[in-house]
Amino acid sequence: xxxxxxxxxxxxxxxxxxxxxxxxxxxxxxxxxxxxxxxxxxxxxxxxxxxxxxxxxxxxxxxxxxxxxxxxxxxxxxxxxxxxxxxxxxxxxxxxxxxxxxxxxxxxxxxxxxxxxxxxxxxxxxxxxxxxxxxxxxxxxxxxxxxxxxxxxxxxxxxxxxxxxxxxxxxxxxxxxxxxxxxxxxxxxxxxxxxxxxxxxxxxxxxxxxxxxxxxxxxxxxxxxxxxxxxxxxxxxxxxxxxxxxxxxxxxxxxxxxxxxx
Length: 262
Hints:
alpha/beta
């Protein structure tokens, strides 16, 4: 089958309803939470929108806005250079990454039951192996998404589940991260929370192992996603193309999934 026919079959499948297009992106808005760092560090900017004109004296025929935000606000992409371990990775910023990596298969690890029981649930290698026993081996170059239905189980006024000893949100442990990289050669790791690491990952060895090892290995991160419940355990394809920011460490983006209709 020719490449042209494959493309036409894909378009036909989408138009006919045989393939669904799922938006995994949260809406950028001023109240959307960002990660809060200890006070001695500089903080990420939330989303701020300033109207330039809206069919008025400032511009009678057009509507547009200025906006300000950090590279890591809202649904966003983490490039290797985001972390110190990835600072020397070739083509590690969002403007230099190979564009073919913006389209990739995904596996979705359903951790909803565990997270309902423990908002600080830690994803382990054993959980990943149990998933493979049911759904098959994770293929190299795949995204691994941790489904938690986070927006439905956490307090919207305390999105990171911040407590006296820090945030308590789910994420992988060190062994799971290394296994995904060394044994399965994944493309990256994605989550519905505000970071790919667990809220208590500052206590792990090393600290924040998902950032430390994934980016050091030239892998990527996606966070603050939604609608992972609409994806199958495997068989979907992710389109995740960050903005082409010069020497950018990451970028807000629209994450789209193409998934078969079950």
